[in-house]
């Protein structure tokens, strides 16, 4: 994926939106377990209405005029004497390193954590997965740590970061009961909080009336430890507030600990909390027999019933390195690994380094030759030698090779039952050789325009050139290809530098009847300009799809687009609206690479990306490329969940095409070391899925219970309203509100086992599908068209229930305000609920999360087909049903680092059923109350124990008489 070369010029990596609906301490200390006698409906209702601690209110505190004095013991007994706040904050003098509390107890995992603004991976701050200390030794949990340099554990990537460097980030910890806190410690990454203050709530009213400590210019990467005043009263809650942060997307905190001394009283408290955390369910437990290993993959499965799995890598990995290019066959070791993994295809980055120039071809067209030999290219060490950018086929656009090695490889792969997909190159002569620039950015975006590179969309250079490259690749008999380079987007024009004769000016005026705006502004003309960019990108993609299909109608067109517009708030910069691309381009598989990111939604980044890409196309078909290793891509996975769990996470959303990056990192075919453990994990996982194919899992779909509507225009126009200039200086939290609301709702659905399908509010053609669902949830409908509104009216009239969160259609699809919000009357009608809470501010508040889930479940009522109670643990559960054979598939991933118990329930017609467990170890039969043949009533509510970091798929089969 060349992550090292991925240069997002406008890179604000977000925190996505993280709903921690039932965090360990909150649910397990305040939630009442469902009794064994409750039926499916009662259990479902009770799980959504358990009591919560009082909502914490983030209130501002008075400016503190004192500076802490440190005594010899490291305790802070006096508060900030003589200090006066000013615009220029003084440097805090060096202080004595606080003494560690011996055998301290970390109670943070038992608290209810929330933040303002919304932070997508907030739970990682108290997950107990502390960073690794220098030298690989795990830092000791439950004590203050030495302030030495440490490194985060790349395997668990356990950190959270906030999206801006404003002074508004706050993290609140609600304690299970009033408790005296003796100290805190937190681990910071490179982008860190250097000035901060900590306040406490001593009365339980949420006002954080007590200053505990305040620090200026003392925070730094690594562990930061503080003792709190000895005479501190018991606290109901504690708030960590940022004063000053350093670096983009700061602060980045890997772990936050609240520490109490291990005295007899605290031991009693800790034991009680630990016991409460272990309480889960009193339901009957589903038991399993010993697993029977999977046999050979079934050979009688129709192609339409098979998932498509691919290995991603570079050309050299799959060619025999011992022979010349023109006589080179496939690498036997690579082929053995592909067959062992039962892959369906390989998907290749391409390029070769010929030993001599004798067989190198150079385009004849002057417009390409002059750029290949341009002095700026020759000054680049990477491309000084013409052969360094050689493609493995003769090309009219790129430097190529006389022998078509791709065509030969495609034939060899076909003989071995494998397809060949190609990811075309970018940033090679005759295009800009700088990563992330032309054609990924308009030529005037980052500097004065270069006459060599006209407008990407309409300049007549990039589009015909790349269309020719696509034709050449398709003519090489490949089965699929990306119609764009890897991780692609197109940054819009810079209006101040855009040439007067740029073709976009004429086309824009013809389209909208107005001139191109002179500057960024929150008005309809500029919003039309952004839409023009979206449509121009989609039109460019369509021309590439047309070129591929003209060369071979059977070739599969796909993408591996950049996920940057999903990870940052100013997505219009990237001129990439997924729904417009999906509806206009005619592409077969719209896809991306949602790698695990602890700074966005963590492991939920995979299903989030899949949902947005599925909803973007009329066919709902997508391809996801998952990372097979973590960190720097060579770090082995420590357990199967980071391989099998991520793949299962998107499988349960109905994704049928999955590729795994990068082949040489998990297959033992390169000098990078021994075979990565991920190889075995993937082999066993694919074997498990292959065993499910005959049961019809691929044709199973998410139940038509919930549809979520994503308001792309609402996100964009709200952001433009709050922050017209698209840059990252003083970016206000308010601008990310639309993004945060959508992420918050998705996280709530993902983490509480509420399967859903996503559609775009901006696409009436596919929005009509919501009439098939029981409940529709709309997180942030700031902008909505009249056409979309009429569909919502029809849905309400036909009995579809609707949950609207926060915005009420204040503007039309162009961002122009209505005389009154369009949805204002709709929320007064039967079957429609409205929640006005601001999820940017309160989205991580457990009480607000519970209210949101309760509203959703009330609307579902007795129509719900699936029930899950995870008791606050990080367990992901989905459901797929094959309507033809009635087989039900329940994928479950226990991301939690401890064994976990959850409740499940299915609402099934009367009859007899068999339940099987598919795991990486094989197939197991199940029994409930000693019975293997189960009734519908048996399956209405039961519990299941999950080992830590575990992945399984339950299959419920109807035993028809």
Task: Describe this entry's structure for a reader.
The protein has 961 residues and is an alpha/beta fold. It is 24% helix and 21% strand. The strands form nine sheets. Strands 13, 32, 33, 34, 36, 37, 38 and 40 form an eight-stranded antiparallel β-sheet that branches. It has an eight-stranded parallel β-sheet with strand order 20-19-18-15-14-23-22-21. α1 (24-30) packs across α3 (264-278), α9 (462-474) runs parallel beside α11 and α11 (524-551) crosses α13 (578-584).
Number of helices: 23
Average pLDDT reading: 83
- How large is the share of residues in beta strands? 15-25%
List the uncertain runs. Answer: 1-99, 133-156
């Amino acid at each position: 994926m060349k992550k090292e070369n991925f240069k997002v010029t406008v890179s604000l990596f977000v925190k996505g939106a993280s709903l921690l609906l039932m965090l360990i301490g909150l649910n397990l200390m305040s939630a009442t377990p469902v009794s064994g006698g409750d039926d499916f409906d009662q259990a479902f209702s009770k799980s959504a209405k358990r009591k919560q601690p009082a909502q914490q209110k983030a209130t501002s505190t008075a400016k503190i005029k004192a500076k802490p004095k440190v005594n010899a013991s490291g305790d802070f007994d006096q508060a900030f004497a003589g200090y006066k706040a000013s615009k220029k904050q003084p440097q805090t003098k060096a202080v004595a390193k606080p003494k560690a509390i011996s055998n301290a107890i970390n109670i943070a995992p038992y608290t209810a954590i929330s933040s303002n603004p919304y932070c997508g991976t907030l739970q990682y701050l108290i997950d107990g997965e502390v960073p690794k200390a220098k030298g690989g030794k795990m830092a000791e949990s439950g004590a203050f740590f030495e302030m030495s340099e440490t490194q985060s554990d790349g395997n668990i990537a356990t950190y959270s970061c906030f999206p801006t460097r404003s002074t508004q980030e706050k993290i609140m910890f609600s304690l299970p009961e009033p408790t005296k806190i003796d100290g805190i410690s937190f681990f910071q990454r490179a982008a860190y909080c250097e000035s901060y203050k900590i306040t406490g709530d001593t009365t339980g009213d949420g006002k954080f009336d007590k200053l505990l400590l305040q620090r200026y210019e003392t925070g730094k990467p690594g562990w930061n430890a503080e003792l709190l005043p000895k005479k501190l009263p018991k606290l109901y809650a504690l708030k960590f507030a940022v004063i000053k942060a350093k670096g983009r997307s700061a602060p980045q905190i890997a772990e936050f600990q609240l520490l109490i001394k291990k005295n007899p009283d605290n031991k009693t408290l800790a034991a009680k909390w630990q016991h409460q955390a272990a309480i889960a369910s009193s339901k009957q437990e589903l038991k399993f027999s010993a697993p029977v290993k999977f046999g050979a993959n079934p050979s009688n499965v129709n192609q339409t019933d098979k998932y498509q799995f691919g290995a991603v890598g570079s050309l050299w990995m799959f060619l025999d390195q011992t022979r010349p290019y023109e006589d080179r066959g496939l690498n036997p070791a690579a082929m053995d690994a592909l067959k062992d993994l039962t892959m369906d295809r390989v998907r290749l980055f391409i390029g070769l380094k010929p030993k001599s120039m004798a067989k190198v071809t150079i385009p004849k067209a002057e417009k390409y030759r002059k750029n290949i030999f341009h002095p700026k290219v020759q000054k680049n060490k990477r491309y000084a030698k013409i052969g360094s950018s050689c493609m493995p086929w003769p090309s009219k656009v790129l430097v190529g090779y006389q022998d078509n090695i791709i065509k030969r490889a495609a034939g060899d792969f076909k003989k071995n039952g494998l397809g060949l997909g190609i990811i075309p190159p970018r940033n090679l002569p005759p295009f800009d050789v700088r990563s992330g620039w032309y054609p990924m950015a308009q030529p005037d975006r980052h500097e004065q325009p270069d006459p060599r590179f006209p407008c990407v969309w309409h300049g007549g250079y990039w589009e015909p050139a790349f269309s020719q490259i696509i034709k050449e690749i398709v003519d090489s008999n490949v089965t699929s290809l990306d119609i764009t380079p890897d991780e692609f987007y197109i940054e819009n024009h810079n209006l101040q530098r855009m040439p007067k004769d740029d073709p976009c000016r004429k086309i824009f005026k013809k389209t909208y009847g107005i001139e191109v705006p002179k500057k960024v502004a929150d008005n309809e003309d500029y919003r039309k300009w952004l839409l023009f960019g979206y449509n121009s990108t989609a039109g460019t993609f369509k021309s590439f799809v047309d070129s591929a299909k003209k060369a071979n109608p059977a070739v599969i067109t796909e993408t591996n687009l950049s996920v940057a517009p999903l990870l940052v708030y100013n997505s219009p910069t990237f001129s990439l609206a997924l729904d417009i691309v999906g509806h206009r381009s005619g592409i077969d598989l719209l896809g991306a690479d949602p790698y695990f990111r602890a700074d966005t939604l963590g492991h939920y980044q995979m299903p989030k990306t899949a949902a947005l890409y599925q909803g973007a196309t009329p066919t709902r078909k997508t391809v996801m490329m998952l990372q097979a290793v973590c960190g720097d891509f060579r770090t082995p996975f420590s357990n199967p969940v980071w391989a099998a769990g991520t793949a299962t996470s998107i499988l349960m959303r109905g994704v049928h095409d999955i590729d795994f990056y990068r082949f040489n990192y998990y297959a033992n075919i390169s000098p990078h070391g021994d075979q990565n453990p991920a190889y075995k994990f993937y082999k066993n996982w694919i074997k498990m899925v292959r065993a499910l194919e005959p049961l019809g899992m691929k044709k199973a779909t998410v139940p038509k219970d919930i549809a979520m509507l994503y308001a792309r225009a609402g996100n964009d126009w709200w952001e433009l309203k709050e922050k017209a200039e698209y840059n990252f200086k003083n970016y206000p939290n308010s601008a990310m509100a639309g993004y945060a609301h959508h992420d918050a709702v998705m996280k709530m659905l993902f983490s509480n086992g509420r399967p859903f399908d996503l559609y775009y509010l901006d696409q009436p053609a596919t929005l009509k599908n919501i009439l098939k669902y029981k409940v529709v949830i709309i997180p942030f409908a700031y902008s909505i068209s009249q056409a979309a509104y009429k569909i919502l009216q029809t849905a309400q009239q036909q009995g579809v229930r609707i949950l609207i969160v926060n915005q009420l259609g204040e503007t039309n699809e162009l961002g122009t305000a209505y005389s009154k919000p369009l949805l204002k009357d709709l929320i007064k009608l039967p079957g429609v609920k409205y929640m006005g809470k601001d999820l940017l501010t309160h989205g991580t508040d457990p009480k607000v999360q519970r209210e949101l889930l309760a509203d959703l479940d009330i609307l579902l009522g007795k129509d719900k087909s699936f029930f899950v109670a995870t008791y606050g643990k990080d367990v992901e559960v989905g459901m797929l049903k094959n309507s033809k054979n009635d087989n039900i598939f329940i994928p479950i991933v226990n991301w939690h680092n401890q064994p976990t118990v959850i409740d499940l329930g299915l609402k099934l017609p009367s009859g007899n059923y068999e339940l099987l467990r598919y795991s990486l170890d094989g197939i197991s039969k199940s029994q409930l109350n000693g019975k293997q043949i189960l009734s519908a009533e048996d399956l209405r509510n039961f519990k299941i124990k999950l080992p830590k970091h575990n992945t399984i798929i339950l299959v419920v089969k109807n035993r028809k008489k």
